[in-house]
Task: inverse folding
């Protein structure tokens, strides 16, 4: 399937909505508009011309394991080499290790493009960036000097080795062991499953970040340490040296992302080194996990965009039945199906969800940038709190959204949507993993409410709501936007009340936390997107009033905002009513009675 | 994956909710409870022991086409032979042609079991029953005598050949031709796609029902005729005779139901015979299509049940994390995940949707039975109208529901849900077709509102609402049910108001029909299910009050009803608000602006 990066919308979000040039200045980064647009355009070319053409075949061909070697789909190795050679791998890496230290607000657009072009291909490189972050933040100087340059450049790739058969969500159940050696290294033994890119033929070395227990570790999550375990131990000259005692035991046969190897990794006394303090592995891993969760959110967004593009293309080409109001194209045998209101409903649902999510992604990326790069320490802390609040929403909402949008695309294609050659059903299969990995979406919702909302008694959430409320206040007096602004303002008021009710209920009964979590996250996301749609409408209205830019583009923004408010935002009502239904009706039934 | 027919619930629905024995008496059919339960139990055994074990392999092995022959997955041919030998094929067939003429209200339970055990396997036999109906109702005596016995017994299978590359939803665009011959037969030429079971190795003959145009036919849907085109023309002795000029040109590679052959069928001057009058093909085909749509609804239900069973089994076995309220099973390393409220939310959503839909299926099957078998002509007509109103709801809502329930099952399994060997992701892939074939769910929604609601100015819908309202009135005075009954009554009032608004808006602006159709169908379905849940709760309360049967079963029914009302029914609010958002926000955007 072809894929074209949505450059028009990306530029709108970056420049008009979030002033990325000003953002770069604040971060001390001298990127100007020309450079930013240049990166976007080059990225778009790479995604469309190099990566996207590999995606369909990668699904049919999959990965092959033989003699412990994984063969990735045709073309992946060459595309990965370009990815490294052209500096895409090092975009966000720290400059002291050869990275370009570009802001996430820019990089996330390129990453979205990669996800949309081929999720399978992106899986291999995505975790390396998280590994760089964890190592950079928590690793010893010696480990950093040995491994970071090659990870930043992408010559070496990183993985995250958390899951074991008995330990998925519940890392307390981890059994992998790390035995200290006299030279300060550790011997790591155990078996990990679901390791994305655990073995592959793209990079010359693979650096595994492995959660394991030291011999004297306390039980549970307080006894978990993070270790760096390379496939090849780095030689003194920085090249891959001795082969380590680890191997890929099997690769999984999956519903989707078949071009990405998902490995069982066996560590048989493999040599590793501690990252950070002993028993502090979870905290170190969370540095990586936050990045990974943001990236997985982008996967939902990227696949959503690709699915929307496919559906739109088909809806404009496919001739079937006449418009309800009479022939739209009398010269043709039938009208393009985009004339049918229900097809438009699906397309606009896709468009308004994808574009709404893109605004939230950029906003969240901005917080991540400010957390790491704002000159003021208090501002860094504030941005960190904001990002922490938003990341579970981005991860869970975007990936549910990506699945929904892909499913709408299948529906627009009708029976053809079910046929593999069109490439549309692949998007549904590929995106389904995003709701599961890096913490299922149920776990994201628990993280959101338990740690991020209840964790500070709702303070950060209130601050976010207040920020959006101010944005509404600023627009409510403009006649063209008053209806929209009032409607968003009303939802924000409802959200504040609902938040208080949820916090009170959760403090009264601990089961309420889990009973309302998913609905509360979804509710929050729909209202947040409404806030962003109001902002987009305000910028569009500005542009129409000043006559700058292409009027049709801004008109479409106003129309999408209107559609979102009228036809998508009502879902928030269902989530609100449902969560107010409470925990009792969930907990009442005896376990045995479920089987009747 | 294992599958066990939900006999407990089926017996509850058939005997306690809908008095199937009385229903059979009314139809002049002497089935008693013992016989009915015997059929259910034998059906359950066949589905669980013969069909279900074939399903996982059928997905991996798929179908193979070579030299025009399709090879179905291992075991399908033997299982099909048992299906024929043991009389499952002839359950609903007319008795004059060797059928058992069992009521749909009973048969639909067996069919649901088949769908749950293996949708791919069921696809081959499902359309034969529709072909029997169409031929029985519209065929000439000679055609019926030649073909019906073997179709009823299942020795020969039937297909539906509608779709062509340019003609999916829009049958007006059909090009396949039928040229009359001197002997009264026709030569059929053209290419059909997406023909389920178009070629297979299960039955000794395949009887295609083909839509085609006669030379003098008017353009559009008024020029379509239905023809019977056998793979082997029946010989005088009733055996398969001369091979007809038709062939399978290709089989599709699909997202799911890989064990079902989906064929491109080429008719190269194949001999066929008219069924019904020339140019009346669509009306004849609709006899078949209504049955097929009801069956596809059952597919959603069956897969939903299978997915719920899988999720429940896993949720009771999988140990991960501790319950929020403290360890539920302190002796184990962690608690079974069924202790977590959010897992219960998913399981109860599955359970209440599946069981709610099963009640609607039985209710709809009753109408189908009464339409054909009620002794009174006016009652037959009334039942036909009721069935016609409900069938698009059953088809669209059940199949959306099946997909949702399968997706919840994947989510309960976490990462394992994405791995093929567990068989859970297969349910998502298999069920996805049900939202597309026999008319996409968008088309069902248009049929519902345009033909079934607007067609008689809302009269039949009003009658249905009044019937449910009376059921509420009967329960609202019982203290144990008053809250439930009032809440359903309120929704019914809201539904009546909404219906009036929808009808008025559609009469004002034709675009509103397509703009509100899907939301209105979904809204209607959620409220209908609420009505059935109230009925189930009333029967459960009766049983608890009289102390009959197993109290825990009835207690669970009350709890499921309560859950549905509190946590699922709120979705109706979103559909209501969304559809009131109207058509303007769908139609405003220029086609070109979608691409920005």
Result:
């Amino acid at each position: 399937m072809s894929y074209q990066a949505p450059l028009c919308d990306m530029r709108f979000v970056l420049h008009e909505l979030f002033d990325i040039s000003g953002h770069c200045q604040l971060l001390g980064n001298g990127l100007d508009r020309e450079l930013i647009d240049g990166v976007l355009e080059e990225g778009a070319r790479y995604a469309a011309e190099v990566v996207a053409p590999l995606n369909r075949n990668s699904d049919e061909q999959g990965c092959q394991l033989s003699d412990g070697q994984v063969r990735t789909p045709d073309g992946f190795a060459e595309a990965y080499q370009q990815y490294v050679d052209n500096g895409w791998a090092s975009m966000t890496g720290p400059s002291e290790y050869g990275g370009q230290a570009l802001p996430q607000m820019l990089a996330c657009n390129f990453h979205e493009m990669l996800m949309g072009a081929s999720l399978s291909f992106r899986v291999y490189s995505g975790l390396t960036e998280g590994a760089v972050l964890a190592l950079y933040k928590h690793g010893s100087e010696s480990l950093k000097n040995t491994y970071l340059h090659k990870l930043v450049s992408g010559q070496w790739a990183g993985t995250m080795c958390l899951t074991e058969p008995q330990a998925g969500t519940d890392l307390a159940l981890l059994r992998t062991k790390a035995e200290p050696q006299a030279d300060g290294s550790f011997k790591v033994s155990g078996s990990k499953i679901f390791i994305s890119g655990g073995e592959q033929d793209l990079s010359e070395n693979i650096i595994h970040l492995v959660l394991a227990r030291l011999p004297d570790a306390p039980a549970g999550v307080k006894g978990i340490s993070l270790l760096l375990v390379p496939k090849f131990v780095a030689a003194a000259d920085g090249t891959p040296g001795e082969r380590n005692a680890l191997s890929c035991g099997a690769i999984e046969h999956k519903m989707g992302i078949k071009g990405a190897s998902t490995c069982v990794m066996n560590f048989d006394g493999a040599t590793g080194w501690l990252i950070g303090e002993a028993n502090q592995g979870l905290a170190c891993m969370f540095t990586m996990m936050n990045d990974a969760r943001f990236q997985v959110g982008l996967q939902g967004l990227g696949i959503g965009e690709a699915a929307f593009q496919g559906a739109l293309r088909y809806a404009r080409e496919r001739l079937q039945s006449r418009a309800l109001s009479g022939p739209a194209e009398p010269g043709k045998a039938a009208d393009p199906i985009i004339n049918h209101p229900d097809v438009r409903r699906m397309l606009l649902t896709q468009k308004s969800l994808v574009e709404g999510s893109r605004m939230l992604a950029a906003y969240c990326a901005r917080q991540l940038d400010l957390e790491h790069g704002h000159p003021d320490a208090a501002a860094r802390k504030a941005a960190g709190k904001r990002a922490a609040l938003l990341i579970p929403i981005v991860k869970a909402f975007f990936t549910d959204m990506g699945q929904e949008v892909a499913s709408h695309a299948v529906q627009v294609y009708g029976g053809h949507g079910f046929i593999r050659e069109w490439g549309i059903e692949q998007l549904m299969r590929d995106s389904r993993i995003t709701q599961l990995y890096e913490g299922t979406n149920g776990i994201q919702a628990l993280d959101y409410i338990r740690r991020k909302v209840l964790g500070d008694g709702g303070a950060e959430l209130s601050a976010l709501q207040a920020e959006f409320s101010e944005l509404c206040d600023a627009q409510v007096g403009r006649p063209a936007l008053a209806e929209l602004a009032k409607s968003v303002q009303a939802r924000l008021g409802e959200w504040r009340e609902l938040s208080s009710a949820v916090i009170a209920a959760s403090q009264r009964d601990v089961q309420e936390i889990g009973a309302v979590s998913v609905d509360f996250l979804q509710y929050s996301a729909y209202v947040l997107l409404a806030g962003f749609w109001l902002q987009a409408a305000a910028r569009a209205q500005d542009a129409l009033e000043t006559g700058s830019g292409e009027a049709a583009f801004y008109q479409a923004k106003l129309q999408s905002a209107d559609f979102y408010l009228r036809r998508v935002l009502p879902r928030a009502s269902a989530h609100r009513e449902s969560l107010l239904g409470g925990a009792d009706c969930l907990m009442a039934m005896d376990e045995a009675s479920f089987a009747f």
